[in-house]
TrEMBL record:
Keywords on record: Aminotransferase, Pyridoxal phosphate, Transferase
Catalytic class of the enzyme: transferase
Protein family according to the UniProt entry: Belongs to the class-I pyridoxal-phosphate-dependent aminotransferase family.
MF GO annotations: L-aspartate:2-oxoglutarate aminotransferase activity; pyridoxal phosphate binding
Enzyme Commission code: 2.6.1.-
Cofactor or coenzyme needed: pyridoxal 5'-phosphate
All copies of domain Aminotransferase class I/classII large, residue ranges: 34-378
Protein name, UniProt field: Aminotransferase
Amino acid sequence: MTLSHRITTLTPDGDDGWGLFYRSRQMIAAGEPVTELTIGEHDIRTDASILEAMHRAAAGGHTGYASVPGTPALRQAVADRISQRTGVATTPDNVLITPGGQAGLFAAHMAVLNPGDTAGYIDPYYTTYPGTLRGAGAVPLPITTRAAQNFQPQAEDLRALKGAASLLVNSPNNPTGVIYDAATMGAIAAAAQEHDLWLISDEVYDTQVWEGAHISPRALPGMASRTLVVGSMSKSHAMTGSRIGWVVGPTEAIAHMTNLATHTTYGVPGYIQDAAVFALGEGEALEEKIAAPFRRRRAIAAKALAGQNVVRALPAMGAMYLMLDIRATGLSGAEFGERLLDTHRIAVMPGESFGTSAAGHIRVAMTTDDAAFEAALHTLVAFAQGLA
């Protein structure tokens, strides 16, 4: 018996480039002390007030099947949030609630791609992107960017999209921490219209903006009818394990994705949706509370990296990550990461895990307490200087 080609080719390299992360987790499980700066998991848990709302809803009986496209209350809350933040009129019929942003990404691509279609995405990229596209039956097309241009895709880069059916973008960006500026978003919108593409915009970090402004491409002229926006409570409200997200887009697309959800996820538990309604109702104050540690650690990192040029940080404009250029050491990101883990028990993600454009870089997640984070950065710099 053989497994399907679709499932066996999701990650051709076998581990999606996460081998170092898996090794660090094995070390931790074996009792070794490791400072983990790998994945985007908050070092604080979901706020107690959200958990209390979730408990009230579950204890109150909202534990049966919930409406597949989402409860009316949560769809309205998300629509209101999107309307307020982007200025684009959004109704509940424009919203599908999904089990996290990842499920939203898959549903969006299933909605707009036929088997064999070419689907573009920006390199560097979040590691699940190529596998998501393959799972939807598409041929992934990376659009390479350059560190010298802060990984902002250029108009000439986007010409490679000719013949593609979709483009996936992510701003604020994981892994680079870059926020696409108005010129970049304008070029992306122009390419989408020129090549008649669906644009899928992953905006799960929209509450983590340290410099500049987040621009949702759905708000640009002519883009609402061809854009699907994926959002999530994971990063904005530290609800990673609750698996609660959404897709916002044209009503026809949302109706068809609701049909897809009926045949796949069959919705999200009602008590989790009720907790999400509560969390969104707390407004920006709670979101700023969740984002505050990363804003603070960004400043800590700037001080720790000052006064040397062996480890260079790209402008960390948003999200919970730093992208560090370690090419002066002569090592690849993977080699640097392996040696750093072996010698100092500090785990980072190699840039190569996120595509070819980030080779010679490492991604550092700002997801441990301030003191440990600062100490790890000083050790990392000293280690790099010794290599250089």
